[in-house]
Prior knowledge:
By secondary structure, the chain is of the alpha+beta class. The protein has one domain (5-139): Heat Shock Protein 90 (2-Layer Sandwich), CATH 3.30.565.10. The chain has helices at 21-32, 37-57, 86-89, 99-103, 111-118, and strands at residues 5-11, 61-67, 71-78, 121-127, 131-139. Strands 1-2-3-5-4 form a five-stranded antiparallel sheet, with helices on one face.
Amino acid sequence: MEELFSTNYPIKQADYVSAGKASADIKRRLKQLGVGGDVLRRVAVASYEVELNLVIHSLGGELRLAVYPEAVELVSTDVGPGIPDLAMAMREGYSTANEEARSLGFGAGMGLPNMKRNADEFDIQSTVGVGTTITMRFTLA
Length: 141
């Protein structure tokens, strides 16, 4: 698979001031590359959700965007507590967000379900005490 474009976004723990900047840049870059319509919308939603999860739940991490002729790929890798119960975490409305995140309007428990719903391919790997990696692919028509 020939990579047309890629970039990495470091995401800091609890950096609510910058939250959303990486996903806004991803949307802008994809528009410049000619990605539009439904795919752009779905990538925008998923990238925002995964970026916020990095800010809220991890000790920091990185979001990687890669664009291929046939797909857009987002990979989120973090250092953090990991997810002890993936099945529970995938349930709509389930949240482990702290009070600070909730007071800012985040942590409704829709992040992972929204990522899975919007991606054409979704994979999550998590190890308690180590961290979580989420890989999402979006097929380009």
